[in-house]
UniProtKB/TrEMBL annotation:
Residues 1-22 form the signal peptide. Transmembrane segments: none annotated. Residues 49-239 form the Penicillin-binding protein transpeptidase domain. InterPro entries: Beta-lactam/transpept-like, PCN-bd_Tpept. It comes from the Bacteria. One of its GO terms (molecular function) is penicillin binding. Keywords: Signal. This is Penicillin-binding protein transpeptidase domain-containing protein.
Amino acid sequence: MRPKLSLLLGSLLITSANSATAATGCQKGERCTMVVYSEQSDTWQVINKARAERAFSPFSTYKIPNTLILLEQKKVNAESSYQVNTKQYPPEKWWPKTWLASDINLKDAFHYSALPLYQTWTNDLNKTNIQRHLDTFNYGNRDIAGPLDAFWLNSSLQISAFEQIDFLRRLDKKTLGLSEQTYQTFSSIFLKEHTDEYKLYAKTGTGPIAKKTYVGWYVGKIENKQGTHYFAFNMYAPTFREMVKQRVNKAHATLEKLNIL
């Protein structure tokens, strides 16, 4: 049975998450994992390795490969503004106001996880092309047998934290069979935060995988004076609200503990 979209808010940014009380990092034995690979020093840091090897639904972290495919197929571009097709995807009460704007650009659609926009865009693709790209990307289990507009939402597509890192590294090495323009455009979309000390590229993703069990992702990379550090974090929470309160803060606390952020 296909899950309700209200339970599949992949990575809606809720500002209260940033103002939550100080979080503790992921600890050994907790229901979470963090994997960090530091390119320049060729070192791995892993918390809860068994969980890091376990594949989960990517939820809105799939917007990383999805956006690359959409750019490469010229279904979207960074200069245009977009609006949700409310006839195809009627608004629901839980939708954030940002999804109903008439001028959503691609970067905002990516970071605010405008699910109905991405579903509409994905419907303009076909599974043959998507499969070809995901095979080239070697993205997770590459299984898109689920619905065309939802196979990444607690459906057939699955990926582990280690596999997230592998994919991000090959993205940076530009070995995904994409055009230079696609790589450059996506880099500007992926960038989340830029300070004097670092650049943070990140994507969240959250959704239910069982009763009272949500999995939350935070994946990306940090560029600082020590080089490039790829990271993939996931955790459990009993509700979407609890996940949003904890996910990014806990991931950042873990990256600080590992002297990455």
